[in-house]
Amino acid sequence: MLNRLAYERLLAWKQQPARKPLLLDGARQVGKSWLIGRQFGPREFRQVHWLDFHANPRLSALFADSLEPSRIIDNIEIELGQRIDINRDLLFFDEVGECQRAVDALKYFAERLPNAFVCASGSNIGLLRSFPVGKVDELALFPLCFEEFLMATGRVPLLEAYRAQRQSGTVHQQLWPHLLDYYFVGGMPEAVAAWFEPDQSVLDRTDRVTRIHRNLINGYRRDFGKYAGIQDAQHIERVFENVPMQLAACQDGSVARYRFKGVVPQRQRYRDLAGPIDWLEKARLLWKCFPVQGRPEPPLQARIKANRFRLYLFDVGLLGHMLGMTYADQRAQTAAYKGYIAENFVQTELGAHASQPTYGWFEARAEVEFLIRDHEGEVIPVEVKSGSRTRARSLRAYIDRYAPTRAIKLIGTQGDRSGSPIQAWPLYYAQFLADV
C-alpha cells in the first residue's frame, strides 16, 4: 500500500470542528479514489459510503429531486441499504464531475450540514461547466513525488537523510540511483506499486511498468474523445503527443518555449491551439512555466505573456515512455536527452510542492529555467544542470545583471551549499525549493 503525503492534509480537514466538503482534484489514475476510499476513509471513519458516478451513472438519480442534504442522505441510505451516521461516517462522491447535480449539492452540504464528513474526487474538475466556488476545500493530488517514491522503498534511514537534506557522498550514492529509477517509473501509483513488487527481476519490473505506462496513455487518449468531442479530441491528442517531441528537441540548454507551428495542420498561432492546451492543463496532464523577460520584479504574474510559455508533461515516467526510452536509457543518462528529463522532473516537483504556475527568466541568449521566491519575497534564480559538468553561463549572466543574494544550481552530483551567491544542490532535492 502506497502512502501519500496528502494524507496529513486529509487528517487536518477531518479534525476541523466544522468543515466544507473536501474536493480532491487530479489527473485520472493518480490515486484519488484509492487514497480516500481505501486508505483515509476506512482508517479514520466508522464506515465509508462510496458513490462512484463513473462506474454507476444511475446514481445521479439520487440527486434529481432535491439538493437538500437531508433528502440526499435519505436517498443514499435507501440505495445502499445502510444507515449513515454523519458524525462518524464518510460520504464519498467519487468522479463527481460525472454528475453535475452532485457537484452543485456540495454547496448545500457546506451551508446546511457543516458537521458532516463529505469528500468528493474528480478527474475533470477543471472542465466543469459550473463549480461551487468558495463552498469546498480543494486539494490537488499529483503523481507520487520523489519523496513518496522513496517512502515506497521502505528504507527509513535513507528517507530520513533525504528529509534532512544531507549532502554527503554516502547519501548521494544511494539517492542518485533511486532518482534514475524514478525517471523511468515516474509517479503513477500503479507503476510505482509494480516497481516495488517483491521477488521480481529487473526485466520483469521494467516490462510491467512499460505495460502500465502504455495502458495509461491509451486511457488518456480515450478520455479526449469522451470529454472533448471528436474534432477537439484530435487537436488535444496532437498537442499531448507533441509536448514530449518538443521537449526531446531541446538537447542543448534549456527547454525552449512551446512552438505552435506544425502541431496541428493549418494551425500556426497561439489562439489556434489555446483551447487544446488549456484543456490539457485543466485536466492536469500538462504544466505551464512562464519565462519572464528582463528584471524579474514581483509580482511575476504581471510580467508574463499568455502566449509565451514552456510545456512539460505531468509525469516524468510517462514522458520517457512516450519517447520510447528504456530503463537502460534512463540509467545511462546519455547527454543527448538527460537535460530535458531533469528539467521536467524539477517542474513536477515544484508543481506538487510549491506555488503555481512556475516561472523562468530570459534575456537575449541567456535563459534560467526557474524563478522562485523565498520567504522574504526575494526572487531566486534556479538553473538545472543534469550532469557533473555544471558551468552555468546563463545563471552567471543573471547574477551579473541583478545581483541576487542567492542563486541555486541543481546538479547531478552531491552538491555544495557553501558557495556564495551560487549554491549547488543535488537534483533530487528539488522539492525543497518550496521551503527556501
Key attributes of the depicted protein:
single chain, 436 residues, alpha/beta, Rossmann fold, seven-stranded mixed beta sheet, five-stranded parallel beta sheet
Textual characterization of the structure:
With 436 residues, this protein is of the alpha/beta class. The chain has 2 domains: 6-140, 3-Layer(aba) Sandwich (Rossmann fold), CATH 3.40.50.300; 146-435, no CATH class. 42% of the residues lie in helices and 16% in strands. Helix 5 packs antiparallel against helix 6 (156-163) and helix 9 (202-228) packs across helix 10. The longest helix has 27 residues, at 202-228.
Write the layout of secondary structure elements.
Elements: H1 6-14, E1 22-25, H2 32-44, E2 47-52, H3 69-80, E3 89-94, H4 100-112, E4 117-122, E5 137-140, H5 146-153, H6 156-163, H7 169-185, H8 189-195, H9 202-228, H10 230-248, H11 270-282, E6 286-293, E7 310-313, H12 316-322, H13 327-332, H14 338-353, E8 358-363, E9 366-373, E10 379-384, H15 393-402, E11 407-411, E12 422-426
Parallel strand pairs: 1-4, 1-5, 2-3, 3-4, 6-8, 10-11, 11-12
Antiparallel strand pairs: 6-7, 8-9, 9-10
